[in-house]
Amino acid sequence: MLESKGIRLEHISKIYQDPKTGKDFKAVDDANLTIEPGSFVTLLGPSGCGKTTTLRMIAGFESPDEGEIYLGDQPINELTPNKRDTAMVFQSYALFPHYNVFDNVAYGLKLRKMDKDTIRKKVMDILELVELGGMEGRMTNQLSGGQQQRVALARALVVEPSVLLFDEPLSNLDAKLRVSMRTEIRNIQQRVGITAVYVTHDQSEAMALSDQIIIMNKGVVAQIGTPQEIYYRPKDAFVANFIGEANFLQGKLESKEGNRGVMSIYSHQVDVENVEDFARGENCTLVLRPESATIENEGQLPCEVMMSCFMGSYQHYHVKVGDVILQIMDFNPRYKKIFQVGDRAYVKFNACDSHLLKTE
Question: Which is nearest to 155 in space by CA: 93, 77, 69?
Answer without folding.
Answer: 93
